[in-house]
Amino acid sequence: MFRHRRVGFNGKSFDCLKFRTMATDASERLRRHLESDPAAAAEWQTTRKLRKDPRVTPIGALLRKSSLDELPQLFNVLRGDMSIVGPRPITEEELERYSDAVHAYFSCRPGITGLWQVSGRSTTTFQRRVVLDSYYAHNWSMILDAKIIMATVPAVCFSNTAY
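Given the sequence above, the corresponding structure tokens read:
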């Protein structure tokens, strides 16, 4: 199990739970990889993700591909830190990239699934993720949540956009 500090509803920090999918020296691996591979550094700058991430363990890759690494977040939902549907929980470092959209982000609980997950996921830019999170916050409805939940199953089962 892995706990990572995230920022959610009303700017409140919480421990977001996930199954560990990365090596324990992940930060050092990332630093070395980005220094030695300019293409990876550019990908990281744009998406905050890496298609070929040297930090991810082989079992971790399977958990991520199937989104099973997110299952412990159900405890976050039960504690009231998260919702089933909402924007992805973000780190303190990611807050500055939200600029004016941060107020929209703070207006709702982060979710296990959301527009980003059903709209291309890891293949979209971080800026697109901010736009999707802002759209969700401004247009929330039970119908939108139902549409996202219904789109999540095929996105997880049939998509190759999780890494």
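The chain has a mean pLDDT of 92. Try to locate this feature in the token string yourself.
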